[in-house]
Queue: 3 jobs
Job 1
Amino acid sequence: MGHGDLMSQAEDVADQFLRVTKHYLPHVARLCLVSTFLEDGVRMWFQWAEQSEYIESTWSCGHFIANVFVLINLLGQLGGCVLILSRNFVQYACFTLFGIIGMQTVAYSILWDPKFLMRNLALGGGLLLLLAECRGEARSVFAGVPSLGHQSSPKHLLQLGGRVLLVLMFMTLLHFDLSLFSILQNLVGTALIVLVAVGFKTKLAALTLVVWLLVINFTFNAFWNIPSYKPMHDFLKYDFFQTTSVIGGLLLVVALGPGGVSMDEKKKEW
């Protein structure tokens, strides 16, 4: 069996998966995408005192402002997730969550930690894809209204930005050692993230990355196996839900396609 035949069969499997799941895949994708915000919002409630104390001691901002910070995080994240999952005011919810990401990036000094910064940017990529989906729904309401050029429309640019930011998550998973397994994993992973970024064989590459991330997530981030009083429990839990959110973004790529600014779209013109 040739390479082309194998690739065609793999694409057929991906297309079949999309046909079977097309009615509920976007809902699963949205739930996965907001999962880290849901978990963090709930954590703000149960760890209110610890979070407030951390912000107050780090920034010397006073007890009142520290509590306001925790309250904004709690209400902003839980409220944004409810609006996204209920499909109400999705654009405002996404902008609220963008604000939460930005605020936490500064407040928790994530700006100076490349690994966590890339993961936060990947979350932002998922939100861009949600905005693109929302614009697609709005466009379908005004189907007969003239619009911008096909490839330069805001929806397609949002999809491009979302794809590029999503792949930053995988940069944090690369292992820089000389073992054969790590080298193969890095080569395959890099090839897949490049395919998603440029929009070539996008659905197949994104679906493969979903499977890869699921395996990594349930293997290495199994926080339920660690006693809750140990710091590693919270660390793995944080990693687990952030990875789940990126999986949600990739599932949106599978459901929506790569958009107009992609090699897959160019292939149709050729």
Job 2
Amino acid sequence: MSGPECCSNPPILDPNSGAGHVQKLGGLNSYVSGLSCSKHAILLVSEVFGYGAPNLRKLADKIAAKGYYVVVPDFLYGDPFAYEKASRPLPVWLKDHEPDKAFEDAKPVIEALKSIGALSIGAASFCWGAKCVVELAKSGMIQSAVLFHPSFVTVDDIKGVNIPIAILGAEIDQYCPPELVKQFEEVLTAQLGDDCYVKVVPKVSHGWTVRYNMEDEAAVMAAEAAHQKLLAWFAEHVR
């Protein structure tokens, strides 16, 4: 996962971006948006650039506007991947940020959400965060899941998912190529029937849902279409 697609068009991180704020939740600094009294919560698990990405926070705010309490934890502990650090390329960085660990870190966050009144919880991931959400989707801790351009997920990982799940992959993606997405679809359809939705989105590349260029109208429209699918999926399976 060290090729150009994974980290192309990296965001300019802004700790002050978004309409929400940062607070501790489940022991982690987390960007939160929406009313904490909502009975429906959404957990967003970032890609390698972390929870300070403005487009990710913008999406969190968009979801919160639909009545959810949205949480974006800093699963990277203040250490997002930085392209400019030549001495620490992605394979080296990943040794300190194994995707599996985020699943363990997510457990106290989920418990914190339940403790403040969340009765149903959905989780969505981007790239690096997919492994965490797939494991959550097998744990009984959440009610629904969405994966955007997943990485580090195998067909064996998908086996055992037992809640409604949507997966949107990119046509141009060497880390989760369309062939692999189709295998996910075969497994999930056998397991879940109509409670799964899997699509390879044409003419988009890995990362398109959160690393789009605001100056590119087609890229913005493609990202927005994916966001609307997420909102519709959670409206059906979380609310």
Job 3
Amino acid sequence: MTCCEGWTSCNGFSLLILVILGVVINCIPLGMSLVEGDSASPNPISCYEWWFPGIIGAGVMAIPATTMSLASRKRACCNNKTGMFLSSLLSVITIVGAVYCMLVSLQALAEGPLICNSQANNSTVSCEFSLRNLSNFQPESFSLQWFFEKSCVSPDSNNSTSNDIFNNWSVPSSNSEEDRHRIFHFSVFLSLLLVGILELLFGLSQILIGFLGCLCGGVSRRRSRVV
């Protein structure tokens, strides 16, 4: 087994773990949303889990590259230029899915849970999916103020000064329903963001290894014949 095959196989096992994590993490708030929808709470914790960042972005779109990478050990499919080029091509799909997962997670972290946006009237609160919402994301306006304030639903939060925000800076506990929603929302989408980042890195590394394999494809096969 060449170094290209070894790294491709390692990528496959790593992506498999990330795919499982992404799907599981995405399914947890989906179940919570169904539970919360039947209770006295008028809204689920968040809408962004219904955009399936972990199931589609970090899950389904990473399966082809994961399958190809895992097959490199048994079938030696990365022992030729075609196999390495195909692994690089499938990794592009993984990167697109990882970027989608990251964008949705960043948007969710920027907006906060629905309990912090109950007075807003936009497509986020009404759970309407639109790629325009992702394209309108502005990194310079990203803030976790909703998480670190003592309360994100205080009536005078819009009129508070910078000194008031600094004085109210604290980490939420699980003493109230609002704090539980904030902690849950933050934990889920931060985890999905990390999964997307790792998948992006593994996808980029596999593209690099694929190009290197295309440049020296068939070397191990020729070496095995000489030996």
